[in-house]
Amino acid sequence: MSTTGTVLVTGATGTTGSRTAARLIAGGHRVRAASRRATPLPGAEPVRFDWYDPGTHGPALEGADRVHLVPPVGDGDPAAVMLPFLRRARAAGVRRVVLLSSSAIPEGGPAVGAVHAALPGLFDEWAVLRPSWFMQNFTGTHAHAVSIREEGVIMTAAGSGRVGFVDADDIAAVAVRALTDDDAPGTDLVLTGPEALGYDDVAAILGDVLGRPVVHRRLTYEQMRDRLTAQVPPDFAAMLAAMDSAIADGAEDRTTDAVERLTGRPPHGFRAVVERELVRGGVIRPAGAPGAVVPSPLDCFVLRFD
Q1: 3-state secondary structure of 127
Q2: H/E element holding 128?
Q3: d(CA 19, CA 3)
Q4: 248-267 pLDDT, tens digit each
Q5: Where does the chain have alpha helices with state H?
């Protein structure tokens, strides 16, 4: 692995960005940790970065030759701000970009799919990470985790469809390899855990680990869309609800070997991750319990891009 150069990590305080930055630092790489408030991160150089403030883009890119690219959260047309930034990055000397996308969004698809399609034409060294739904959606400040804590319920329009849920730690491990290996992947990588689970399965595992009932409440597409509209713009809510419908039709019922191929080890299983996250911070304890966290409105999405 190369240890030269500097990696700019956008979304460095997010679910995968923070883990990617920490792994890069632990591996001896120079990291510029980009966030809206230039939040300090041990071992990294904090820099202010706001997708919607181009004045922050140039300073953030100074000295960087690689970028871990996390799209703006909740933006239905991220290409409008991301493509100008990428052209600026290329002009500034960035040679490799690793984009965080989603298993649900193919090259040329909606939202970040347009950025995926443009990336190979902008950089010779690139990769697109397309993780499945995060296991941390059930253990952090995501809407699912909130409803689990407060009501013992997971609400989806996914029916009996199954998902190859993936650990954010595994996503970060793949991101580090894609950023630092001598040869960039030059392709998109669909990242999953070791097994595909239905939300009924997820609820059963959570209930067993937590020692209290957790159930999966099945909503219609319309009910899910309307529920999400209280948190995100209507068009984005409709897109997210449609992704649940796609799960119900089998779109995410798959597993891949991408994590093991890139990292040399198997991906983590769901039960092990839930148990680990509970020990780390008690983040799925009932609201008001010692160690429970207060959810942020920005975390209340079914699909994560951080």
Answers
A1: strand
A2: strand 125-131
A3: 18
A4: 999 999 999 999 999 999 99
A5: 15-26, 57-61, 79-91, 113-122, 143-151, 168-180, 199-210, 221-229, 234-248, 258-263, 270-281
